[in-house]
Amino acid sequence: MLKKTLIASAIAAGTLASLGAQAQSTTPVRDNGFSYTYGQFGYDRWDYDNGPDVDVLTGEGAFALDEHLFLRGGLSFYDGDYDSPGSDDVDGNRVYVGAGFHTPLQRGLDLVGTADVIRDDNDFNDEEWGYALRAGLRHQTTDMLQLSGGAIYEDIYDGNFGVYGQGLVELNRAWDVGARVSFTDDSDNIGLFGRYNF
Questions:
Q1: Which residues does the UniProt record annotate as the domain Outer membrane protein beta-barrel (predicted)?
Q2: pLDDT over 70 at 187, yes or no
Q3: CB neighbourhood size of 116 (10 A)
Q4: For residue 90, what pLDDT is reported?
C-alpha cells in the first residue's frame, strides 16, 4: 500500500507541476472565477484495506464567504461488507463540516486548502469523531475542464496520509459533472457526482 501511495504521490506531483508550468500569465490575478458556492450529489465507492468495501451516497455543499474563504459540509450514507471472516454487513453515515481557503497563484490556477471535522457512525464501530486536512491546486485546464489534486491527511479511526484528484466538466454556466479519486495508506476511493453552482 505504501508503494502505491508513493507512486500516486509522484504522479500527482508531476501532473500539478506541469499544470503550473502551463499557466501563461505572470500578471497578478485577483480572482480566477472558480465557483466556491455550490451543491452536489454523488456516488462513491470506498475500499478499505482489511476493512469494509462500501457504496456511498453523498450530498455536499459549499458557500463562499468572501474572495478567499468558504464554508463546506456534507452528509453520506453508506452500505457494504467487511472483508474479515465472520463479519457481515456494515451500514452507517458520515457528516462533515469545515472551512476552506483559496487564493490565485496564476491565471487559471488556485491554491486550495480545507479543514473538516467529521463524525462517523456505523453498526460495526462506535460513533467516532475525527478530522481531515487537504491542500492542493485547482486548474482551469480547458474552457470546459478543471483539474484538481493534492495531499490529504485524515484521522478518524486512525491516521492516514494520501493524495486526491478530481476532474470537473462544465455542462453549462450552472451545471457540472465530475469524477474524483483518493488513495491513502489504507483506502482507495472513487466517485462520480453532479454539481449545481449558485
A1: 12-160
A2: yes
A3: 19
A4: 87
